[in-house]
Write a structure and sequence with these properties.
767 residues; alpha+beta; nine-stranded mixed sheet; seven-stranded mixed sheet; 21 helices; 40% helix
Length: 767
Amino acid sequence: MFKKLIAILGLCLAVYLSFDALLPNKISNLDTPLSQFSTDRALVHLAEISKAPHYTGNKENARVRHYIISELEKLGLTTKTQEGFTNSQWNNFTKPVNILARIKGKSNSKALMLLTHYDSNPHSSIGASDAGSGVVTILEGLRAYLAEGNTPKNDIIVCITDAEELGLNGAELFVNQHPWVKDVGLVLNFEARGSGGPSYMLIETNGGNASLMKEFVAANPEYPVANSLAYSIYKMLPNDTDLTVFRRDGDIEGFNFAFIDDHFDYHTANDNYQRLDRNTLEHQGTYLMPLLKHFSQANLTNLKSTEDYIYFNIPFFKTVTYPFSWIIPMLVIALLAFIALLIYGFKQRQLKGKDIGKGFIAFLLSLLISGVVGFFGWKLILFIYPEYNEILHGFTYNGHTYIWFFVLLTLAISFYVYGKVYKSNNVSSLLIAPLFFWLLICALTAFGLKGASYFIIPVYFGLIALFVLIRQQKPSLIVLAFLCIPVLLIMSPLIKMFPVGLGLKILFVSAILLVLIFGLCLPIFGFLKHKKRWSYGFFTLAIISFFVAHFNSQFTEDSPKPNSLVYALDADKNTAVWATYDKILDTYTTNFLGETPDETKAFGTNTFGSKYGTGFSYSKSAPVKNIPQPKVEISNDTIIGNLRSYNICIVPQRHVQRIELFTDTTNVFHNFKINGVKIEKKTEEDFAVFDKRKSNRLFCYYVTNDEPLELEISVPKNQQTSIELYEASNDLLENELFSIPKRSKDMIPKPFVLNDAIIVKKTISLE
């Protein structure tokens, strides 16, 4: 009994260590030596940067820019700004202002770039984490580096971009137009997609990652959180950062350092100074300092590689790497060892076909039931709590409790199922099924998702455990617990990482992964006699966690409800509506849309650009207000051959933040210039500009300095071109023409959508 207790405690300790190794536990304070990074000193900057939303073009954005420039100059750096119009890959057009500085190195070698962005997301995000945390990490890191008296071999370029949130426009401007780009050899980019949790290292490279990983390991950051699976997934998702532009357009390698937990704060008014996790900011500092020292001296001309490395982090060993070329040999060795152990086990009469069959049934049932419960269970929760759908991030405020709920429920299911097939002498037979499926997964990843091929490491320890079980009638549970520890150290954080990074809809993946881990822990769990009691215990804890989630399901001041409201004036028809993106109206929105709003969507199929392509859900007739309409001037109407060309000048008659243009997808544009910038075809195969559009949207102009929108276009001379112009200002709550009450403290503006806006629609007909 004592040995079983020690073994169980050992497994629990392994799970604890797997998470404890991800983040620093102590915060560096103001008394930290000046030559070292201090989180508390970085927070002094953050308090200044995160006073208010500072999106591209607003006054607060300029204030934050001037503050950053002054702080860089206090460090003795000469600063520059770079300004110019750019169009993003998502057809978001604006005029960013980048902040640049450079520390001269001893050699005429490639430069190290420190990269982040200073703009917040429009219109209500405070931007403390995203990416004020990156700005202050660089400011404090440079201060400590210089205070230590370091003289770099390589130049150090500081690039703090603008308009990252609009479509990576600042990075596009630097990479495609600034002369310094040719000097950059490596980029360290600091980002955020939440307000807490460990910062994940993600590589951006057009080739292999071998050289980058060798240098990363040599730099020896204290709390590395990195695995090749995470980047394989990252490459499949539309989560590009500024660093993506450096890789894509400049063929420049780099590292992203981004934290993703507490995702519900992302792009909201809650992305503020108070809610940024201090341990997370400390973690960013533990990356920057060793990497800054290492790469400021390293040879940055030798980072290209054709070889890829598998890599993963594990407590005590930090970052483990090995070449992709080992994947197949390691898989083959494991397969041969598995077959040999099967033969050996049957010869020793320790493996029995009937018990192996029961093991397959138990394992498959555990996988199937847990996966189904995870998939449909979350859908059921959304049905019970439809208000969760108002959080577009897909991760609720009580999301971590739901992770606990499904973890505990999966453990209850697994213990219950295995309680039906357990015998005192069949643990080795029951282990065959998990090993078989782990090997199958490793075989699939070896050819389809190579970044996950380090999953073979726990399998090797599982094979050793199988050998011990076959050899010994009464194996040492302490030894078996030791052999189970690697799977817990390596895989446990992934159970949390998947739903945190991809949303709670992915909880079924965590459930399946937990069953796989449970299977490799059968050398211990298999010897627990009272599995039903364990099952009932975990089920009871699951029910408790569900009720904890329930009691925290209400929107409060600490976990406010995101909601939305806009006023839209159709200048062509002289009609107006209130509109919302919300599926469930509340006391704030019913003031304007009533209890029975119209389900017809405002503006039909036209959807303003947003991260999730969210359209209006309800609208209601509104009084027509005297909103100044944009002035549209059409000139230089000329026909040359089969093309008809126009110059169109759109001059807002009020202070607006964006102008979005829509036209039918059948309309063809052979030439298109926006404020003097020629818009290129996306691909060489495209017939025209804006070809193969999936929607009517042409582009969005995010206005800076109240500059007008000037278009030069060429269309087929017989084309009847009609363009719908939507002009929006973010002043609905302040405009004197309206009396909009403030939101209650348990509400915040919904992120990712055009919100708190006054919209004017006007049609431009070219005949």
